[in-house]
Amino acid sequence: MTYHPLGDMLAALRESTPLVHCMTNYVAMNSTANLLLATGASPAMLHAAEEVAEFTAMANALSINIGTLSAPWAESMQLAARTADTTDTPWVLDPVAVGATEFRQRVCQALLSHRPSVIRANASEVMALAGLASQGRGVDATASVDDATHAAMTLAQRQRCIVAMTGETDVITDGSHHVRLTGGHPLMPRVTTLGCGLSALVAGFVAANREHPLAATLAALACFGIAGHRAGQQAKGPGSFQVAFLDALYQLTPEDLSSQSQVETLHAV
Amino acid sequence: MTYHPLGDMLAALRESTPLVHCMTNYVAMNSTANLLLATGASPAMLHAAEEVAEFTAMANALSINIGTLSAPWAESMQLAARTADTTDTPWVLDPVAVGATEFRQRVCQALLSHRPSVIRANASEVMALAGLASQGRGVDATASVDDATHAAMTLAQRQRCIVAMTGETDVITDGSHHVRLTGGHPLMPRVTTLGCGLSALVAGFVAANREHPLAATLAALACFGIAGHRAGQQAKGPGSFQVAFLDALYQLTPEDLSSQSQVETLHAV
Amino acid sequence: MTYHPLGDMLAALRESTPLVHCMTNYVAMNSTANLLLATGASPAMLHAAEEVAEFTAMANALSINIGTLSAPWAESMQLAARTADTTDTPWVLDPVAVGATEFRQRVCQALLSHRPSVIRANASEVMALAGLASQGRGVDATASVDDATHAAMTLAQRQRCIVAMTGETDVITDGSHHVRLTGGHPLMPRVTTLGCGLSALVAGFVAANREHPLAATLAALACFGIAGHRAGQQAKGPGSFQVAFLDALYQLTPEDLSSQSQVETLHAV
């Protein structure tokens, strides 16, 4: 498999500064906005049923994360996702802890009917969405990436979307092409909501690179991998990691992204 | 125009540590609280209809920011703003993205009837509130400050309040006196919700300086300008900027504020 | 009074990484999650009535903080607290500003009937819960720790729970044993929601040390005391303090905790 240079994806993001409508959990809102601004996208957070469809229709992308879900938010998420589907606006689903409660499973199933462009999830969540046994313990991923790679491919084929399954190693697939990405740093799981922010960043990258959704998704994950690695070199713990990570995303160049991403093509498993 | 030394405004804030009742968006809550604590005010966040009026009545100031608006919050905001108006408590309106949806315009029009002391907004929002064409793209300001200065003056005169319009250059006006303020750093727009926090800080400054609302507003903006400039000198990106900015607000002295603020009197345009 | 070495409590936390179901205020969510992850616990934030009991039943601990209370959240908190009581899951109540409004007093009284394991509060809140005069000014503590020590003992005896009253000096009591803890740094009150995060950390420590709830509570507070002191040595203000504090919690060893905690046994006053 060949794909567009990842650096081009980042250059396009910075040139177009896509407006990403983020419906995300309360824990992640601030950090998500900062991650997008640091990298080069433009975040906007709003969720009221009175305005959500109106706003999604004018945004360049939508990102839905169900972390701190509630009934009114679930309703608004349906409105936004339906609008994104109707207006052909790229949208990303982040099904936080979908295997943990029936409420989450029900809401996610309804959201899937609006055809997300990308599902960004950990291994447990991918397995739960694919209908395989979930060993999800709250928001942790306890299934191994190897166990879940097959589930990711199955889910991508069934939903006709990209699945970006992140963990120590990331797996990105559109059902036909499968890629593995390494990088990052062991401190990353010690900082909350980095994955949530990544979902919104994927939305921005896909919006800025409409012709290349798989490479765009990969580029977003590679930004995290490289910036995470760099931040980890300087950090003394999760506090200094967060600071260095935002700085590294800001300083990251398209050339860095093209030359330093650790991508490997996978064959179906 | 002459005005009170800005350093006096900061000294008064630190001496009285005004309790600022903040009704702000989910993205901004944590950073707003930290910005107020670093500078010398005392934040409290609560919003339930069951208690909001009771609390506003005992606070020294109120700050309302409609960022992540919803119907229940809009109702509580009306209760709080009405209480502030009735009890003569200074209050600040931050009309985030008011031009973006009908819902926001409707809620803001209702809030304006409770006579805010100060409106803190970007150029697009000022133009939308003034009834002029808004080019607002979500939460971004795309109207130039020059285009919007006239709108700010018009809005201040119509509402009989102070308008603090922030951007690369700030314009502060009470309808009769018009001031321009420069400072800050290009990294500031790369950090989320600094403007939201500034609105709450303005509320604190006005509460601590009831006789001098225009100078108090100017002092709050000047704190951001000087601290932002200093933080920018040390920062490697938006992560280290945030850290240095909180430290700079904490270290800022009244003498710094009086001597380093870059204020220029404007004539009506 | 003798108690288990505090370092053992931290070692147990890190070995079991307890899943702490956090129902906390919007201001505190992100910082609470990061404080738990840095120290070694696993946070999960969710609050919908549709799922909250289901989740509490599988978590290792529950922490309820009423900071940005609303009627739907109050209802969910009752469901979660009742579940924790029924399933014998340790749970912590953080009654933010309980003395400030009638709404908060009513909600806290109902929550107390579900028998919290620990109440973590400042002096004003302890006095309000104990039914003594509160001088609470919003979320600030204006009652002195000395004034409130008696109230803490009374409350612990009446509720048959641990009361962890924090301030410049902390007082921890189960009604029979009373301990005083010093440490920390004057910058800590200049950073928002550290106390809120501490409540959730107490929940994690108690879950990881079911046989020793008093020592576990003390260990959580001692982590904050030592890490706060260390962070304060390096910080230039509240921005760099936050970064250094997360790093210090991450770097803290069980040996540090056993050797450096400043604990003193109290006699009833």
Reconstruct the topology from this structure.
The structure is a homotrimer of 269-residue chains.
Chain A: H1 6-16, E1 19-23, H2 29-39, E2 42-45, H3 52-58, E3 61-65, H4 71-86, E4 91-94, H5 102-112, E5 118-121, H6 123-129, H7 145-159, E6 162-165, E7 170-173, E8 178-182, H8 194-208, H9 213-234, H10 238-251, H11 254-260, E9 262-266
Parallel strand pairs in A: 1-2, 1-3, 3-4, 4-5, 5-6
Antiparallel strand pairs in A: 6-7, 7-8, 8-9
Helix pairs in contact in A: 1-8, 1-9, 1-11, 2-8, 2-10, 3-4, 6-7, 8-9, 9-10
Which key phrases capture this entry?
thiamine biosynthesis (chains A, B, C), homotrimer, Ribokinase-like (chains A, B, C), UDP-N-acetylmuramoyl-L-alanine:D-glutamate ligase, 9 strands, globular, alpha/beta, magnesium (chains A, B, C)
Number of strands of chain A: 9
| Binned strand content of chain A | 5-15%
CATH class of chain A: Alpha Beta
Q: Mean pLDDT score of chain A, rounded?
A: 94
> CATH superfamily assignment of chain A?
Ribokinase
Structural class of chain A: alpha/beta
Organism (chains A, B, C): Vreelandella piezotolerans
Catalytic activity (chains A, B, C): 5-(2-hydroxyethyl)-4-methylthiazole + ATP = 4-methyl-5-(2-phosphooxyethyl)-thiazole + ADP + H(+)
Function (chains A, B, C): Catalyzes the phosphorylation of the hydroxyl group of 4-methyl-5-beta-hydroxyethylthiazole (THZ).
Keywords (chains A, B, C): ATP-binding, Kinase, Magnesium, Metal-binding, Nucleotide-binding, Thiamine biosynthesis, Transferase
